[in-house]
Amino acid sequence: MGFMSLSNDLKTRLQAIPQLKAAYAYHHTDFSGFPAATFEAGSLENEFISSTDNTRGYGFNIVIHQSLEKPIGREKGIENLYIAIDAVVAALDGDYNFLGVTDINDPVKATLGEYQLGAGTVKYAVLNLVLRKEELV
Predict the structure, then answer these.
(1) Predicted model pTM
(2) In contact, 124 and 80? CB cutoff 8 Å
């Protein structure tokens, strides 16, 4: 198990969430629709357990993007973002061990913000996902 296999699994899971219009395994801003999710590896934790055993935490930063421009507008755009956040968190929380691939996942944490894309505003949420697995070394 490692970042590549977990990234492939995460992309498949995000693409299966109907509230997302697109999911990409890299960050960018050229979306086929909103809300869109992008993600990349963000951290690696490695805790020594014994001379043959480590617990690794593979961290991913998932960014959900939602345009606030017409015809959607700010009110509906924020509503769409909240619905997408709830759907992603529910999907990740509902599978606490990534179908047995990991031992456990940390509860997802999020921060929200805005950025300018061209002449428009995009609201986003960064969800931090950490997948933990005991590894024999």
Answers:
(1) 0.92
(2) no
